[in-house]
């Protein structure tokens, strides 16, 4: 039996058999059942809670290392400059050589200054001779005045000549001393024990007054200068006051330019007198022993000091994720529902973020953050804090 139907879209008559109608009905029912089954399955998956490790946060007090760029200088550094002009006649030391205080370093040409000394000595001898003659004349006139042979005015004139002769001697002695000082400047000596730096002028070079001959550095100890902000300065001073200024001793670490820690600790000695108005920072000075002369004047490095932070929270980095410079963590509420929360780390330390703004007892997703999203139901699996912070304890 055929059923006649008119196709309303084409206007053409078509004939549908009962078998075709039956098959179409079966396909329709099957599709509906399949659709219902998939919908129920999807709903079931969305409502299934996920087992997730959860960490309960508690405030802590931690000591974390802070690093500061340091300017390293020798305890003594002096530029040795010529005080007189002349040619370099001799050089008694080599660059990098260790010298003792008073050891001769350079000899400049001295012939001119020797002549000046000889001339000054001759002038002094002449002045002394004139003084002797004036003295004899004064004594002779004194006798004649006593016998009233001549008038006292002639004696007064003789005394004036004697005073002039005395002043000429003082002037001649001063000129001699000046000439001898100039001569002594042609021999350049070390001002203290230390190492000789580069020698720019070689033998035969003409140097003028104030030309640099070399530098001497004493690096048996070195100073490391660095700056801290005002808050760090106040924390330091409070710790010093609480410990007692006499017993307080801050031992600091120096990190050299290659990233290696210097083997000897440094002692914080003093601070600058003022806080810089522009930067709000203040300078500290640390002395480091340098028995092997490993650290040179002008070296670079970093000072590492421990800073105590109270009432902060340690967030494992693997429990966080970042989106466009914002750091996020998943917080689990009382209904065991995951909520996204952003926070601003105070700083990063090892494999943790140090942060504030959380509440004691807040629970975060410790690991498996890829399995959850905002609004996900979870079955919290508590993680022991001692296990989480084991790495931190090992570092400290």
Automatic annotation (TrEMBL):
InterPro entries: MdtA-like_b-barrel, MdtA-like_BSH, MdtA-like_HH, RND_pump_MFP. The keyword Transmembrane helix applies. GO terms for molecular function: transmembrane transporter activity. The chain crosses the membrane at residues 12-33. Residues 237-296 form the Multidrug resistance protein MdtA-like beta-barrel domain. Residues 118-186 form the Multidrug resistance protein MdtA-like alpha-helical hairpin domain. It holds the Pfam family HH_MFP_RND. Keywords: Membrane, Transmembrane, Transmembrane helix. GO terms for cellular component: cell envelope; plasma membrane. Residues 78-217 form the Multidrug resistance protein MdtA-like barrel-sandwich hybrid domain. It comes from the Bacteria. Gene3D superfamilies: 2.40.30.170, 2.40.420.20, 2.40.50.100, Helix hairpin bin (1.10.287.470). GO terms for biological process: response to antibiotic. Belongs to the membrane fusion protein (MFP) (TC 8.A.1) family. NCBIfam families: RND_mfp (TIGR01730). This is Membrane fusion protein (Multidrug efflux system). It comes from Algoriphagus aquaeductus.
